[in-house]
Amino acid sequence: MSNEPHFPKDHHGSPHTELLGSEFVGYDEATQTATMRFTVKREMTTWRGGVQGGLVAGYLDDVMGYAYVAATGGEMAPLNLEISMSLLRLIPEGAVIIGTGRVVKGGRRVIFLEGELTDEEGKVYARSTSTAIPSKRPSATETGMGG
Question: Which domains does the chain have, with CATH numbers?
Answer without folding.
Answer: 15-140 (3.10.129.10)
